[in-house]
Write a structure and sequence with these properties.
The chain is of the alpha+beta class. Helices cover 26% and strands 26% of the residues. It has a single domain, classed as Alpha-Beta Complex (Cyclic Phosphodiesterase, Chain: A). The strands form two sheets. Strands 3-2-1-8-9-10 form a six-stranded mixed sheet. The chain has a four-stranded antiparallel sheet with strand order 6-5-4-7. InterPro entries: Cyclic_Pdiesterase (IPR009097).
Amino acid sequence: MTLRQAFLAAPLTLPNVRRDFVEWHRGRPCFVLWALDLDLPEVRARQQAAADQLGALLLEPYRRQPHLTLGLCGFPSAAPAAADEFGPVRLAAQLDALRTLRPPPFDVEIGALESFASAPFLTTEATCGSLDRLHACLAGGPMDPPAHAYVPHLTVGLYAGAWPTVEIDRRLDTYAASPLRLRIERLSLLGYAAAEVGGPLTRLADYELSDGRFRWHPAGEALASCLQPPSPGREPGSLLKV
């Protein structure tokens, strides 16, 4: 089944709601993921042009910068107590897996406008199966799709209502843009405020593909402290506050 056939299999899109999903985050302020940071002027222009094709069908505002998710980490915690929390042991395992794989820089191509039931997206493809291998290294948590269901993509926005998929089908086909190729030199650890639907991403750390170096950005300093292995005398169990 193609992406489009899967989308059209349901009569209506799934609506998104702008509210604070407290039952999901339970007061935990930050959610973290691995992704390709694609926040470049030419990619933002593609994302906006695609959103314009769907206009008022999308939830506003959508402030999340262009990115391609590789793996969902969860809510940072020095001592994870729930399946959706992300701690130092898992981060270390992810970095070990990356350094074992030693993925080189690669190209990614942004293409057509397609859709999931809840969100339209731009298709993405990479050379030599790079994205699938990176997903295998960085995913595996309870919120990640299984390998066979992973669809690399660049989200355009979120549907604001239950719209007929046959009508959206026609709009998807009116988007016309030649493929855009980008060189990928690094992977990024990104975070967002869990209480804000479609809120902006913050770049917390980068993994350089050229030499396997992992470095924190100033915005990720609190996360770096949270994800250090516990030392003697340190009280475990703190959650990252941003």
